User: What shape does this take?
Amino acid sequence: MKINDIITFYDKILISIIIIASLVMLIFPLFILGSKENEKLYLLVQQNNDIVKEIPLADSYEEPIIFKVEGPIGIHTIEVTNGRVRVKEAPINDPLKICEKTGWIDREGPIIICVPNKLSIWIESDNSDIDGMSW
Amino acid sequence: MRKTKKIVVIALLVSLGLVLHLVESFFPLTVLIPGAKLGLANIVSVIAISLFGFASAFQVVIFRVILGSLLAGTFMTINFYLSFSGAVFSFFMMFITYKLFKGKLSLIGISIIGAVAHNAAQITAAYFIISNQGIFYYLPFLILLALPTGFSVGLVSYFTLHYLPFSINRS
Assistant: This one.
């Protein structure tokens, strides 16, 4: 049995629409973001609607900054080194540990999230055209 | 399909879904994109939708999500709400498209819609929990990944239904 016997014309239309829509969503933020000259990057940590930490990334080049953030299910260890940030250790109670698996982020756009702990960590530029909250 | 037989098939689909959910955790796609997964458990949802009516197919999905979270120990936690929102919304979307475009969309199209709906619902639920719009950054990546996974899930469901003896004389 060939794949063309199963897949229909409307399936192909659906797949094309989804590809185009997601590519538009991918490309659109690139025009707004993109690295600029003389920009200053800040690391922001939000827990339960409050910004709990704001650090200029430039501070992390001399020596690594390691701090802990507490949430409903435990404590996160966050590491900032050489302009990059990651969750070094997720709480033991976090079943998926997505924040730890996300790894390092070093630019505007990607975000480290721990949904069970209502924690989000992202990088924002001071001369960004848009509010960093809306990519 | 007789009533007893139907109950047995529903129970089989629920347990198949639970096993597939377990198998899925051996493929850590979340390293590629946070929150990404294969969606193998969606195979049983697609099969249930094409075998039964609304009530029985919905039972398969609900029981799978509740039993799965009880086994993982995440019942009534945030993880449960995330998987519940994703599973229920994708079920409704798949059921509606199956009823409306039965002859036009194949099971592959139905399952792709389910995969995309699952991602959209989960990201939106996560957005309401952590209240940070930055989370939508991952949505296009997740949707692009939902195409191959949804495609494979639809194909597997198609062939499974093809070999099921009771799929010919539907309820």
